[in-house]
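Justification of resources, computational component.

The compute hours requested in this renewal are based largely on the per-chain cost of generating structure records like the one below. Each record pairs the submitted sequence with a full structure-token output. That output is archived, and it is also reused by downstream analysis tasks.
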Amino acid sequence: MAMLELKDVTISYKNVPAVQNVNLSLEEGEICSIVGESGSGKTTVIRAVLGLLAGGGKVTKGDILFDGETLLTRSGEEWRKLRGTKISMIFQDSGAMMNPTRKIGDCFVEYIRTHENISKKDAWEKGVKMLENMRLPNGDNVMRSYPFQLSGGMRQRVGIAMGMTYQPKLLLADEPTSALDVTTQAQIIRQFMELREEYGTSIIMVTHNLGVAAYMSDYIVVMKDGIIEDEGTRDYILKGTRKEYTKTLLDAVPSLGGVRYV
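The structure output for this chain reads:
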């Protein structure tokens, strides 16, 4: 049995389907990327998995199963226990999701104490340890900083540290590298790979960059206009696909010295 299954899922806003008939299966420790242009429905899919559809969005058909149990009938309290512990999400710019008037440590301690009966001091120490595990030297200084005092790459590592605090089985990442320069992108991508190696975390990565998807994914799903246009293993998508849309996306990956790194 797969850890996560989307079965014929349709997601609608005000009864207008935005995503239709999506089927997806994810095993433990597997990395899957969902790629496509803006507006293709990528983010809508992963937000549905975490029950965070904005603007009145609803799953109007199909089912989403996690460890064999449906996620669609969970109560608010059941979602609160699940989010951040078994399933976590990292956003495009984690710093932008934090309150700019509060220090990282205040947010991190509050996050930990929401999920665990623990003193502020112990929560602070746990936060520092997680930051340092995510390659942020001097975690205590980071905890005492405001989000705007950190670089984009550091803010993203803070987001990963918070998301990984309880070693979730599933990590959902929504364009986590698109706001970063290419060097920092590479570092963050490697960090995701290490999370899989160290914790056995399954990852669904939403990205418009097929180069990123090709580097880190076991399985790639290509979306267009709210439906799955193409899907398969990395090797199939890169070398075996017959879909013109996928080939167009591959052609859009920049080349260096005549060599395309996908």
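The longest strand covers residues 16-26. The mean pLDDT is 91.
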